[in-house]
């Protein structure tokens, strides 16, 4: 059995060929797709965060809106780039969105990926101190975020406050949402950062892009990453069970629309190349008739090792088509693989 959700980058483009032509379209259609996914029986609606791009960028208004329109589905990010975040402000937003959703947020965070602009975090007011990198800053800001959503009391109270303080001593960020700390995920691009996440009690997100550490196919490297993560989690002595997600582009070919969009397109094998200063492996796409697709996916070692599968969706093809893709996976693929 697996949790199956979708992962949207929220692409939009003012083009006649796009069903998502504006930022407003991207946001409103994201809400509609989450509602449709819940009705279809999917388990999660996740959104990527990219700044300075025609994609989704400010997750918490969107997550809160989806939380108000749905009742069961998990709502998350995959991922928030912590190089751009004020962890205290983010803790307030996350606590509020989680309360609105009834405790369904599953927040993925990480050091982020290459962006549309050079050192975009500088425009948000962040730079690495001497002797550190922005990856260090992202991890440090994540640790601050974890502490404050856990209820750390650190702010010295005003002796003559406008409103009476609820208790003596330092004050925490408000609102607090019980359990949110246990639903934070780290998007790990390497084996080492997966271990780092496990030590700090964060769940693991492994995407279709990973640092190439062995030259093996992505799914093999991810399976080994997951094994190291779970070993580190056990060694850390956490009482909770860890969760692991992998994301994939999966398109069952069941009608003429699918054939027009995906037959003969996409990458059918992993790609290796340089990105952001390191060698990376990019995962393949899966598109085929359901019976052949099942056999291909059965051989994916990382999917087998994970408990959560996030299906990347082509946002600009519209809500109806993306709901059709989710339904096709849930109906024609998941049962044959024992995921449902």
From TrEMBL:
InterPro entries: Bact_Lucif_Oxidored (IPR050766), Luciferase-like_dom (IPR011251), Luciferase-like_sf (IPR036661)
GO MF: monooxygenase activity; oxidoreductase activity, acting on paired donors, with incorporation or reduction of molecular oxygen
Domain Luciferase-like intervals: 9-259
A cellular-component GO term for this protein: cytosol
Alphabetically ordered keywords of this record: Monooxygenase, Oxidoreductase
Gene3D superfamilies: Luciferase-like domain (3.20.20.30)
Keyword Oxidoreductase: yes
Residues annotated as transmembrane: none
Full protein name: Monooxygenase
Keyword Oxidoreductase: yes
């Amino acid at each position: 059995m697996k949790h199956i959700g979708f992962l949207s980058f929220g692409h939009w483009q003012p083009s006649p060929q796009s069903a998502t032509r504006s930022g407003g379209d991207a946001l409103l259609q994201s809400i509609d797709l989450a509602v449709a996914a819940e009705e279809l029986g999917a388990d999660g609606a996740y959104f990527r965060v990219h700044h300075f791009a025609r994609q989704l960028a400010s997750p918490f208004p969107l997550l809160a809106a989806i939380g108000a329109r749905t009742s069961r589905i998990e709502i998350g990010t995959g991922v928030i780039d912590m190089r751009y975040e004020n962890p205290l402000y983010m803790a307030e937003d996350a606590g509020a969105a989680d309360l609105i959703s009834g405790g369904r947020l599953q927040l993925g965070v990480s050091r982020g990926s290459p962006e549309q602009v050079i050192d975009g975090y500088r425009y948000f007011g962040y730079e690495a101190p001497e002797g550190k990198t922005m990856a260090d800053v992202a991890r440090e800001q994540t640790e601050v975020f974890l502490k404050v959503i856990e209820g750390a009391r650190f702010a010295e109270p005003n002796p003559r406050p406008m409103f009476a303080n609820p208790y003596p001593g330092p004050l925490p960020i408000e609102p607090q949402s019980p359990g949110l700390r246990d639903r934070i995920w780290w998007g790990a691009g390497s084996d080492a950062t997966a271990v780092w996440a496990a030590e700090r009690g964060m769940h693991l997100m492994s995407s279709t892009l990973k640092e190439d550490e062995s030259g093996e196919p992505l799914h093999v490297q991810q399976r080994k990453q997951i094994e190291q993560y779970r070993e580190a989690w056990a060694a850390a002595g956490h009482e909770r069970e860890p969760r692991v997600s992998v994301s994939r582009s999966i398109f069952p070919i069941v009608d003429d629309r699918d054939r027009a969009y995906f037959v003969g397109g996409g990458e059918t094998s992993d790609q290796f190349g340089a990105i952001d200063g390191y060698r990376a492996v990019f995962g393949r796409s899966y598109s085929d008739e359901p019976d052949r697709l099942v056999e291909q996916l059965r051989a994916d070692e990382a999917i087998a090792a994970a408990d959560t599968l996030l299906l990347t969706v082509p946002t600009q093809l519209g809500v109806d088509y993306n709901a059709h893709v989710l339904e096709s996976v849930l109906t024609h693929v998941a049962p044959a693989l024992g995921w449902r």
